[in-house]
Amino acid sequence: MSLNQLIENCRINDTKAQGELYKLFSSKLFSVCLKYSRNYAEAEDNLQDAFLIIFNKIEQYKSKGSFEGWLKRITINTVLQRYRNEKIFDIINENVTDEVELDIDEDNVPLEYLLKIIQELPDRYRLVFNLYVLDGYSHKEIAEMLNINIGTSKSNLARARQILKDIIENYKTRQRLQSL
């Protein structure tokens, strides 16, 4: 069955088609959820919530642009909505304006470790870092998505980069000391 036919069948609440669509996109969308969630279990919950919204709103997809992109936007917005409800950005409004250079040497820092330390960032920093660095959103778009101002987005990104830089430098130092 073609993707277009699958979408059409989902529009009429065909549960078999919904299951196929889930099988087809769940692993990609789960990785999106994992990137924005605090942990694996929360990512699983967010994925389920995202698919409920996808199935409820699939009639709104107008076959313009990438269907996968549409799914990804819904998934990101589903996860972000949870954080908007928790008001994680009301706590701190830092004004860090210095651009922190984050030099990641993939030969010395394993990808699994990088993903782990990004996952462990405080929510407000992790969300902005992922949206800006990994998904390419602008500070203006991030501010709108998270209901914060542009300065808060920029300062949260700078703070996330500083935290990651410190952790990576400590990791590299430990690696050097262990190899002596």
UniProtKB/TrEMBL annotation:
<dbReference type="InterPro" id="IPR039425">
    <property type="entry name" value="RNA_pol_sigma-70-like"/>
</dbReference>
<comment type="similarity">
    <text>Belongs to the sigma-70 factor family. ECF subfamily.</text>
</comment>
<dbReference type="Pfam" id="PF04542">
    <property type="entry name" value="Sigma70_r2"/>
</dbReference>
<dbReference type="GO" id="GO:0003677">
    <property type="term" value="F:DNA binding"/>
</dbReference>
<feature type="domain" description="RNA polymerase sigma factor 70 region 4 type 2">
    <location>
        <begin position="112"/>
        <end position="162"/>
    </location>
</feature>
<dbReference type="GO" id="GO:0016987">
    <property type="term" value="F:sigma factor activity"/>
</dbReference>
<dbReference type="Pfam" id="PF08281">
    <property type="entry name" value="Sigma70_r4_2"/>
</dbReference>
<dbReference type="InterPro" id="IPR007627">
    <property type="entry name" value="RNA_pol_sigma70_r2"/>
</dbReference>
<dbReference type="InterPro" id="IPR013325">
    <property type="entry name" value="RNA_pol_sigma_r2"/>
</dbReference>
<dbReference type="InterPro" id="IPR013324">
    <property type="entry name" value="RNA_pol_sigma_r3/r4-like"/>
</dbReference>
<dbReference type="InterPro" id="IPR036388">
    <property type="entry name" value="WH-like_DNA-bd_sf"/>
</dbReference>
<keyword id="KW-0805">Transcription regulation</keyword>
<feature type="domain" description="RNA polymerase sigma-70 region 2">
    <location>
        <begin position="21"/>
        <end position="87"/>
    </location>
</feature>
<keyword id="KW-0731">Sigma factor</keyword>
<protein>
    <submittedName>
        <fullName>Sigma-70 family RNA polymerase sigma factor</fullName>
    </submittedName>
</protein>
<dbReference type="InterPro" id="IPR014284">
    <property type="entry name" value="RNA_pol_sigma-70_dom"/>
</dbReference>
<dbReference type="GO" id="GO:0006352">
    <property type="term" value="P:DNA-templated transcription initiation"/>
</dbReference>
<keyword id="KW-0804">Transcription</keyword>
<dbReference type="InterPro" id="IPR013249">
    <property type="entry name" value="RNA_pol_sigma70_r4_t2"/>
</dbReference>
